[in-house]
Amino acid sequence: MEFINKLKGLLSNDIAIDLGTANTLVYVKHHGIVVNEPSVVAILKDSRGQKKVIEVGRAAKEMLGKTPGNIKAIRPLKDGVIADFEVTQAMIRELIHKAQQKRTLFRPRIMICIPYGITEVEKRAVKEAALSASAREVYLIEEPMAAAIGAGLPITESSGNMIVDIGGGTTDVAVISLGGIVFSKSVRVGGDKMNESILNYIRRKYNLAIGERTAEMIKINIGNAYPSGKEKSMEVKGRDLLAGVPKTIEVSSDEIREALSETVNSIVEAVKITLERTPPELAADIVDKGVVMTGGGSLLKNLDILLREETGLPVFLSEDPLSAVALGAGIALENLDYLKGVTID
C-alpha cells in the first residue's frame, strides 16, 4: 500500500492553491508557481437561468463593471471564504486545468490555504470544492502558517516567529513556534476593504462615483499608511453624482491616507492584540527577530513604518509578499512527511 502511495506521488502533479479573495495562485510540485490570476469568474446566464463559465482570472477581471445584462463578472470568494460554491468549484477546476500542462496517470493531491479560524462548514466547503474539481486527496493549511513557511521563517524551532499576512479579504496575525500557531488574530480587513474605503471617501467628499479598479489604482499609485514628506497627487476620472456626467478630479496622497486610516488602524490593532496575548518567552524572541509582513496588502506604502512606530519592534517585508502563502503551501506539500503536522483536518 505504501509503495502504491509513493508511486501515485511520483506520477501525479501535486498542487498547492492559495485561494485568495483578490488573487488565486497555483503551485505545482517541482515547478513552483505556474498560475497567478485574479479570483474573478465571468458567468453567462442563458434564457433558462443556467450558468456557464466563459472566462476565469485576468480576462474576467477586465470585464468587471463593463458587462451586458446576461454576463456577470463575479468574485466567488468573500473575506477569504467561499461565497458562491458552484462558481468557486468551476474556478478551481479551470485553474487546475491551466496548471497541469500534461495529463498524469493519477489525480493530484491538493493543498489549499484557508484563513485562520474559519468555521467547520467553511472548511468543508473548500474541501468539497477541491474534491469535486478532481483532487485525489485534499489538505488544508492555515494562511499565516503557509505565509511563515513561504517567508522562510524557522517555524519548527522552539522560538517565536511573528507573521502579519494581509490578503485581499482578511488579515491574519500569528505567533508561531514548534510548528504550531501559539496565538492568532484574524480580522476580515484587507486590500479589498482599502479599495472600498477609497471609493467611499471619494463619493462622500467629491460626489464622484468611481469603480473598484480605479480605487485599486489610486491605492497602488499614491496610497500610504504613514506620511513620507513628499505629497503625491493623481487625476481620477468618474461620474459626477449630481450632474450625472463624466468628471475628472485630483486627489492627494494625504487624502488617501485619511481614507485608509480606519482600515489600517484595524490591522495595527490586530497586531497589538496578538502581541498582548503572546507568552513572555516568545515575546522576547519577537523583540530580537521582529515582525515579518506578507500578502498584497503589506505593499501599501509605509505600512511597515507605521507598524514599527506603533509597536516599537523591527518590521520587515518578506522577499516576495504576493507569493509567500502559495510558496509556503507548496513547500509544505513537497515535504509532507516532515511538515504534515502543520496541516489541519
List keywords for this structure.
19 strands, 345 residues, 4 domains, alpha+beta, five-stranded mixed beta sheet, Nucleotidyltransferase, domain 5, six-stranded mixed beta sheet, disordered N terminus, 28% strand
Summarize model confidence as the mean pLDDT: 86
Unreliable runs, pLDDT <50, ≥5 residues? 1-7
Rounded to an integer, what's the Rg over CA atoms? 21 Å
How large is the share of residues in beta strands?
25-35%
Overall morphology = flat
Structural class: alpha+beta
Q: How many DSSP H or I helices?
A: 12
Main sheet specs: 6 strands, mixed
Helix amount, in percent? Answer: 25-40%
Strand order of the largest sheet: 3-2-1-9-10-19
Distance between the termini: 22 Å
Q: Determine and state the CATH class of the largest domain.
A: Alpha Beta
The CATH topology name of the largest domain reads Nucleotidyltransferase, domain 5
Number of domains: 4
State the CATH superfamily name of the largest domain: ATPase, nucleotide binding domain
The appropriate CATH architecture of the largest domain is: 2-Layer Sandwich
How many β-strand runs? 19
